[in-house]
Amino acid sequence: MNLSAQQNMNIDKNQIDQNDTRIPCVVLVFFDFEIIKKSLDFVTQYSDRLAITVVENCSQNTATKIKPYIEQLLKAHKIERYILFDENISSNAFDVVVDQKLFYDTQSPYLMVTDGDLTIEDKNWLDEQVAIIEQNPEVFAVGLELDLVNLPQVSGAETWVPAATPIQDKNYNLGDTGFWFVLSRKAAFLKACNVILHENKLRFLDSIFCDYSREQEKKWVRTKKAKAYHLTWDVYKTPGHSYRKIRESKKDPLELFIHNRYCNYTIYSPLKKRERNIVDNSEKSIITQQKIVISEREEVSLADLLKENRKNAKVLLELCKAKGYLLKLHLGCGTVYHKGWINIDNNSDNNINELDLHWDLRYKLPFPDNSVDFVFHEHFLEHLTVQEALSSLKDTLRVLKPGGVLRVAMPDLRQAVSDYLNPVWKDLPWLKQYGLTFVQTKAELMNMNFRAWGHQYLYDDEELLRRLQEAGFEKIKICPWHQSEHAALVNLETREQSTLVAEATK
Question: How far, CA to CA in Å, does 446 sit from each of 322, 411, 440?
């Protein structure tokens, strides 16, 4: 990830205040002035312990409401730095500020990163977090538990904050968090940034950092006592709220979180007391530093982000969860690309132009338990041995949410037998369609069905139901081609030879 820039700065952005032991705290804010004010009014109560940098993505409310308010915080020395991006680049603002060390740094060994739409009632919240970090070397980061009292009453909201796991004899609970006042060891967090942003070319997403901590055999944990109140959740109670409209206008979750948008920004910093004494005009008590005109940034395409490793699947899962999108897997997609689905194949023939995730489907799917809404595959299962197919079905059951549905489409053994018994079998349309007019006997025709195209095992409805039941599915039904009671599963089949279609619900 490369940045080339023109700078016009009066202080070194990476300078560490050697006399300051407060914890650097980076707060990201956007759009809703009332929410921002409540959150910053809260966090600035702890300015004696936190050296606060406020990062804002520009919005229609910046000039008239948000910026004047934050400038007042600067003048009152309640925050140390204000970084205003010219556009809304979402979490990429975190990316730039933390990775380039634009935040106000101190001698503290810790760093805090948080969204700017939270408050905490427990006055001992910071003491609790510091104690967790200091007493538990196995902990990579500790975030606040969320108070669910105002959890939006919308479909899927119950999955937004999975329950934490209590750890006996420890002062924390085990569980991933968003950037909810996340406290970590500064050196370790900055190292994680380098690996995630530069080596893996991923983005500044909470789920990516949580995964990284586990890869390092560390723990991402939550507070046991203190809870954060999520102010933005209150917005969901008002359908016409302008911020909610912005969120809902983005149909593609990738557009919200994984993108290559960057922009110029301005750094505002208060004059130190010694410097303020020589300034007559109080309006000059803020140094304006026009920092970095970004002229190039390494392009990271979606294909780059979807590299051949488990992180990609987890990124896609988190994006779907964050936006409330259904997670739909198209297994063994081949050259058929279904938009709105995660299309997965190992591309063994090197003929697939559009592919979301490169994966050998004989192995365990790179998705956690109970995370997927729908799974579909067409002319896939018959290419596996019976044991491979059974393992695949069991793993599909594992990743499906309760109520999730698998739809299977394949050639029907009964149809193959019917073709064999057909006295005019040589006139079958599919023989000409697939260039098989060279077949001379019915026996050769039957063996083509069983052995050609990499087929390993053919099914009829009885056998398919049996194998689905062996995998653990209980609710199974045979379905017509292109028809389903689930809107997401309608009109998915692309082959007329998919004469056996079934749906199995977890």
Answer: 49, 13, 11
- Return all residues near 210 (Cβ < 8 A) that are at least 6 apart: 176, 177, 220
Neighbours of 104 (CB within 10 A): 23
Whether 86 contacts 58, CB under 8 Å: yes
Using a 10 angstrom Cβ sphere, with 0-12 exposed, 13-18 middle and 19 or more buried, the burial of residue 43 is buried
Whether 289 and 266 have beta carbons less than 8 Å apart is answered as yes
Comparing CA positions, the residue from 431, 453, 398, 31 lying closest to residue 242 is: 31
- Quick one: angle between helices 67-75 and 33-43, nearest 10? 20
Q: Give me 380's structure tokens.
A: 């896939």
Query: What is d(CA 209, CA 205) in angstroms, rounded to the nearest whole number?
Result: 7
With CA atoms as reference, report the closest residue to 114 among 196, 52, 37, 160. 52
Q: What residues contact 317, with CB distance under 8 A and at least 6 apart?
A: 207, 327, 367, 368, 371
Token pair 């229609």: residue: 60
Flag whether the pTM goes above 0.90. Answer: no
Exposed, middle or buried, 380 (CB in 10 Å: 0-12/13-18/19+)? buried
| Number of C-beta neighbours around residue 137 at 10 A | 9
190-227 residue pLDDT tens = 999 999 888 877 778 888 899 899 989 999 999 999 99
Query: How does pLDDT run across 98-119, given as a tens digit for each residue?
Result: 988 999 999 999 999 999 999 9
Spatial neighbors of 341 by CB under 8 A, at least 6 apart, are: 328, 329, 330, 333, 356, 376
Cα 130 off chain centre by: 27
For residue 341, give the nearest of 375, 302, 315 by alpha carbon: 375
- What SS3 state is found at 56? strand
- What six digits make up the tokens of 364? 């365990």
CA-wise closest residue to 264 among 240, 292, 237, 245: 292
Domain annotation for the chain: domains and CATH numbers: 23-154+170-292 (3.90.550.10), 302-411+455-505 (3.40.50.150)
H-helix or E-strand spanning residue 52: strand 50-57
